[in-house]
């Protein structure tokens, strides 16, 4: 009787963990015998200011510890980032992107729906980036919505932050800083604003994203990188 109850409790705990993983937008799957962790970045990137409860958000203080745990995990061999984000807090988004770019764990990103604003650095931060043909990306200058930039220090800060983003995208993709800045400052495409909207093919053509593709392409890439790494490790040991 006790064994049966323990088994039921264990099953319930497993189900709770699965539900918790799905609710948090994070789950580990197996691909050809390798454990790959999937982390979603959806809605708006929430930074130092808590957004209204009706907003769909990705909280950077939740994502960063997960990335650290994934990097230190002995079981997880690859990381897939799925993006469908409108952007959000610039500092928070760039912090996540910078952390992703320094991971030794094989990483891949997949843009579905949209990878707008600070979602662009997040998309290019992985070792390989994919985008669905129907997805879009919006590139525009850094701004503070709803607030007048009234002091020179504030304006200088945003200019420096914009330069950081441009350098990061250039260092983690195939587009040059000059071309990326040109997309940022383009006029006539966004109503009452400057910037550029790219579809999947255009994002690949200009060098921001590596390839058009979907879920299977991203998982296949990660699996190949994991196996290559394992082969290299066995070769060194022998």
Describe the structure in your own words.
It is a single chain. Helix content is 47%, strand content 24%. It has helices at residues 2-23, 60-72, 90-101, 119-124, 152-172, 177-184, 200-205, 215-237; strands spanning 26-31, 34-46, 57-59, 76-88, 107-115, 128-131, 136-139, 196-199, 211-212. The protein has eight helices and nine strands. Helix 2 (60-72) packs parallel to helix 3 (90-101). The strands form two sheets. Strands 1, 2, 3, 4, 5, 6 and 9 form a seven-stranded mixed β-sheet that branches. A two-stranded antiparallel ribbon has the order 7-8. Strand 5 (107-115), helix 4 (119-124) and strand 6 (128-131) form a beta-alpha-beta unit.
Describe the structure in brief.
With 238 residues, the chain is of the alpha/beta class. The chain is 47% helix and 24% strand.
Describe the secondary structure blueprint for this structure:
Elements: H1 2-23, E1 26-31, E2 34-46, E3 57-59, H2 60-72, E4 76-88, H3 90-101, E5 107-115, H4 119-124, E6 128-131, E7 136-139, H5 152-172, H6 177-184, E8 196-199, H7 200-205, E9 211-212, H8 215-237
Parallel strand pairs: 2-3, 2-4, 4-5, 5-6, 6-9
Antiparallel strand pairs: 1-2, 7-8
């Amino acid at each position: 009787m006790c064994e049966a109850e323990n088994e039921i409790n264990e099953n319930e705990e497993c189900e709770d963990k699965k539900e918790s993983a799905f609710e948090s937008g994070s789950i580990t799957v197996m691909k050809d015998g390798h454990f790959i962790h999937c982390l979603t970045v959806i809605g708006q990137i929430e930074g130092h200011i808590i957004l209204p409860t009706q907003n769909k958000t990705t909280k950077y203080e939740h994502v960063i510890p997960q990335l650290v745990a994934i990097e230190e995990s002995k079981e997880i061999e690859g990381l897939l980032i799925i993006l469908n984000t409108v952007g959000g807090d610039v500092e928070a988004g760039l912090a996540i992107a910078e952390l992703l770019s320094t991971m030794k764990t094989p990483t891949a990103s997949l843009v579905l729906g949209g990878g707008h604003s600070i979602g662009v650095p997040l998309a290019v931060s992985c070792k390989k980036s994919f985008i669905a043909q129907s997805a879009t990306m919006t590139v525009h200058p850094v701004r503070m919505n709803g607030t007048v930039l009234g002091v020179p220090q504030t304006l200088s800060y945003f200019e420096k932050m914009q330069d950081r983003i441009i350098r990061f995208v250039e260092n983690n993709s195939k587009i040059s800083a000059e071309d990326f800045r040109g997309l940022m400052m383009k006029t006539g495409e966004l109503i009452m604003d400057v910037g550029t909207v790219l579809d999947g093919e255009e994002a690949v053509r200009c060098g921001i994203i590596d390839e058009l593709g979907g879920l299977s392409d991203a998982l296949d890439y990660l699996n190949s990188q994991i196996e290559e790494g394992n082969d290299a490790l066995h070769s060194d040991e022998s």
